[in-house]
Amino acid sequence: MLARDLGVSRGTVVEVYEQLIAEGYLTARQGSGTEVARSAVAPAQPRAEPTAEPTPRFDFHPGVPDPTSFPADQWVRALRRALRSVRPERLGYQDPRGTPELRFVLASYLARARGVATSPELVVTCSGFVRGLDLACHALRATGARRLGMENPTIPIHLEVVAAAGLEVVPLEVDEHGVRIEMVEASRADAVLVTPAHQFPLGSTLSPERRTALVEWATRTGGFVIEDDYDGEFRYDRQPVGAMQALAPEHEVYAGTASKSLAPGLRLGWLVLPDHLVDEVVAVMESFPGALDQLTLAAFLTSGGYDRQVRHARLVYRRRRDRLVAALLRRRLPVTGIAAGLHALVELPGGVAEEEVVARAAGHGLAIDGLGTFTAPGQRHAPALVVGYGRPPDHAFTTALARLGTVLRG
Ligand SMILES: Cc1ncc(COP(=O)(O)O)c(C=O)c1O
């Protein structure tokens, strides 16, 4: 009947039935006909995950750029350009270090924009800074490192990554000139992780004297510096200070990311390694960013789109920071740290409980972090908020600021 209805031969129908049975879509039992297999039922629509907390109206968590600022059209154009010229072998299994196209343009971009001393052979792409840190820690551990000095306060996930790689974390204090060198000297650490361009979350920059001292420590002791160049492209009051990597490329792992300049969801980052660590890093690599994403970023960099995006974002975030600082000053709340990045540290008056302000903010629909989120457990610190001003979209920024003002009024 089916053959007649469809106007095809009986043999075709029988063949299709046999194929569907073979693939498990139909079950056939002698004498009882053929049925749709139970397992062939379409999967139910996933139920919406119950969320523990209501979605905040305004998100002031630090370190995230405005998702509406992602240059989608230019990215699509870069993808098209990349696809038009893609070499067939790029769609096969890749060199774990990354596509040669991206490593080549990154090497020249980093030299030009951040003063990094490198060549494409020393560049390794990775899925964001966090994966780069993981790789660097595993590679350093494989070469005998056991202790890693880390700035305190810092971002908790980085502590977890370092510990998971089998390195002992030695907390290092930070002041307005960056990490304290006497603590590095006393740490007996094999390597240190620093954010010289813009300390996260205190917002200082590593002073020239301390940069020199840190490099001197590394060369004297055979130690390593992992430079998280987070925020390196986002300085507002002056030209960005170059990366410190060029001072001692043999003792530095330089790390950058597209998480701020483009979007964290891309999971695109890069390491610049000393020659002798490249093989060690490749040996511990398990996954890599996809070749098409890498080629798209390469095309985006080559076309000048990346530079334009950074310039534009710098302008937008600089204005936001200025507005935040002005609004807080009106409430006599000082913002500390240099004019850079996507977050600011706001000191709260003595006696004000940080957690209460954070809870009050949540009650007003604002997601915000206290400094305590980033401070080692049990460590005392002056009450402060770490205000990320990247996330709220432009059209909502005025309202978001007004809401923050209400929360801080108490
Ligand atoms: C201090 C610091 N470094 C780097 C990053 C970027 O990490 P990733 O590239 O994994 O997104 C972040 C993100 O918030 C950060 O806070």
Structural description of this entry:
The longest helix has 26 residues. The strands form four sheets. An eight-stranded mixed sheet has the order 4-11-10-9-8-5-6-7, with helices on both faces. Strands 12-13-16-15 form a four-stranded antiparallel sheet. The model has no long low-confidence stretch (mean pLDDT 94). It is globular, with a radius of gyration of 26 Å. The protein contains 13 helices and 16 strands. By secondary structure, the chain is an alpha/beta fold. 39% of the residues lie in helices and 15% in strands. The chain has three domains: 35 residues, no CATH class; 111 residues, Aspartate Aminotransferase, domain 1, CATH 3.90.1150.10; 233 residues, Aspartate Aminotransferase, domain 2. The structure holds pyridoxal-5'-phosphate. The site of pyridoxal-5'-phosphate (PLP) has 13 residues, from helix 5.
Q: From the alpha-carbon coordinates, what is the Rg to the nearest angstrom? A: 26 Å
CATH class of the largest domain: Alpha Beta
Bound molecules: pyridoxal-5'-phosphate
Number of helices: 13
Q: What is the level-2 CATH architecture name of the largest domain?
A: 3-Layer(aba) Sandwich
Order of helices and strands: HHEEEHHEHEHEEHEHEEEHHHEEHEEEH
* Computed structural class: alpha/beta
Work out the helicity level: 25-40%
Would you give the CATH topology of the largest domain?
A: Aspartate Aminotransferase, domain 2
